[in-house]
Amino acid sequence: MSIRPARMEDAAALAAIYAPAVLQGTASFEIEAPSPAEMAQRLMRVKSHGWPWLVHVTMGKIDGFAYATQFRDRAAYRYCGETSVYVAPDAQRTGIGQALLLAVSSAARTAGFRELVAVIGDSANQASIGLHAACGFRQAGVLSGIGEKFGRRLDIVMMQRSLP
What we know:
It is a single chain. By secondary structure, the chain is α+β, with helices and mostly antiparallel strands. The chain has one domain (about 1-160): Gcn5-related N-acetyltransferase (GNAT) (Aminopeptidase, 3-Layer(aba) Sandwich), CATH 3.40.630.30. The chain contains 4 helices and 7 strands; from the N terminus they run E-H-H-E-E-E-H-E-H-E-E. The chain has helices at about 10-25, 35-50, 95-110, 125-135; strands at about 1-5, 55-60, 60-70, 80-85, 115-120, 140-150, 150-160. The protein has a 7-stranded mixed beta sheet with strand order 1-2-3-4-5-7-6, with helices on both faces. Helix 3 links the parallel strand 4 (about 80-85) and strand 5 (about 115-120). Helix 1 (about 10-25) packs across helix 2. It is globular. The protein starts with a strand and ends with a strand. The model has no long low-confidence stretch (mean pLDDT about 95).
């Protein structure tokens, strides 16, 4: 098992990992799964800013990814990053998410971020809330009913971590 920076040729694997979260889950508030080409564009944007996008590889197969972007586009947010972590369904609850979140947090600090925010889709997503808490994030608030997916109104849980 290893964690390495994502490469453009990883786009299809990234799209495949992300698709179930979009199509079947509420962790992502996207409705349509992005294509590999769209994932490549997203990856290129993140890397062009010098922000980290990492992949977890087990026996040659990418089974998870994490990245950090600036929380908002305005200059005052330049030291605040937002993290995203996704693990393939068959690799969840194996420690990959925690390894990725810790690694991307460290890389985010190197990239210049001082604070990290996680915007967790669905307040019932206890796995993601627990993962972030285990990695030093604390709950900063809940925005109730601001998303809708699968005919349900959904909350988001905001979590935050200061980087040493």
